[in-house]
C-alpha cells in the first residue's frame, strides 16, 4: 500500500475511465486534503477562503475575498507569457511568493519565468472553505493497492509480460506494430541529444502514531530542500496502523541512469523536442504513448483515456 514512486490519488470526471479501473480493483472513497508549510506556518491547499483569511489575517466573506485577491493581482499583465506572470496576474505577489515560487524552483530546477503559463492553470483558487484538492466527481484509492490492480489488468491470455529485458529501436522490426511508452528520445538512442526530465529521490523514515496529521504536506520555502512529505497510511483510511511510513521527496535533474518522471517544458529552446517528435510522427509501425512517449505531463486518468482512444483508433485502422 506504500506508493514507491510517490503518492498517486486517482481522480477523474471520465465515467468510462472510472469504470475501467474499477473492473480490476474496488476503489475506496478518498479526498485529498493537502497542507502547506510556509514561513513557519501551516496552511490549507489549494488556496481557499481559509488560506486567504489565515494568510492575510482577515475574516473575509467569499465575495470580499474575491475582490481582495483581484486587488492583489497585477492587472497590468493581460497576456501572461510564463508561469510567474500567470501567477502574478492570477493571485498577486504575496500568495505567489509564499506558495508557488519556491516550490516551483525546487520542483523544476529553473526560474518560474522560464516555465510556460499553462502549468499554473492546473492549480485552483477557491473562494469558499472547500479544501478538496481536486474538482473531479470520481476520486478514490484502490482498496488493495495499485500493484494488485495492474496485475489484474495484465492477467489476460493475450498478454505476455517479459521482465528484465530491454527493447531497442532495432527490435521494432520483430513486431507488426510497437507501442512505445518509454522516453521518445530513448527510442532513437538519444542520437540528437537528451531531452530534459526531472527525477525524484525519496528519503524514507518511519514513526509511531500519526507523524504529521495528513497524507501530504508541501514545503514551499525554497530554503527547505525537499518539496513535500507524504505519510502513506493516510492514503488508506479504511485500514488501521500503529506505525507510519513517510517519505521526504526531492526533485532534481534526471541523469542518464535515473528514472525520468516529469518532462520539462520551457517557454523557449524546444527545438530538440520538435526534432524528435517530427521523427516520431513519421514512424509507420511505431506509436508513441504515455507520459514519456508523448513527452507530456499527464495524470493517470488522462493517460488511460489516451490509451483507450489509441487502441480503438489502431483497431479501427485494421478493420477490427
Outline the structure in words.
This protein has two domains: 34-131 and 198-256, Polyamine Oxidase, Chain A, domain 2; 162-196 and 264-318, Rossmann fold, CATH 3.40.50. The protein is globular. 25% of the residues are buried. The chain has ten helices and twelve strands. 31% of the residues lie in helices and 19% in strands. The mean pLDDT is 94. Strands 4-3-8-9-10-7-11 form a seven-stranded mixed β-sheet.
| Strands, total number | 12
Assign the CATH topology of the largest domain: Polyamine Oxidase, Chain A, domain 2
Mean pLDDT: 94
Content of β-strand: 15-25%
Structural category is: alpha+beta
CATH class of the largest domain: Alpha Beta
Count of all domains:
2
Strand arrangement within the widest β-sheet reads 4-3-8-9-10-7-11
The general outline is globular
Briefly characterize the structure.
The protein is α+β, with helices and mostly antiparallel strands.
Descriptors for this entry?
320 residues; single chain; Polyamine Oxidase, Chain A, domain 2; 10 helices; alpha+beta; 12 strands; 7-stranded mixed β-sheet; 2 domains; Rossmann fold; 3-stranded antiparallel β-sheet
SSE blueprint:
Elements: E1 10-12, H1 15-24, E2 27-29, E3 34-38, E4 41-45, H2 49-55, H3 62-72, H4 83-90, H5 93-108, E5 138-142, H6 146-154, E6 178-180, H7 184-187, E7 197-208, E8 216-219, E9 228-231, E10 243-253, E11 262-263, H8 271-282, E12 286-288, H9 290-293, H10 300-318
Parallel strand pairs: 3-8, 6-12
Antiparallel strand pairs: 1-5, 2-5, 3-4, 7-10, 7-11, 8-9, 9-10
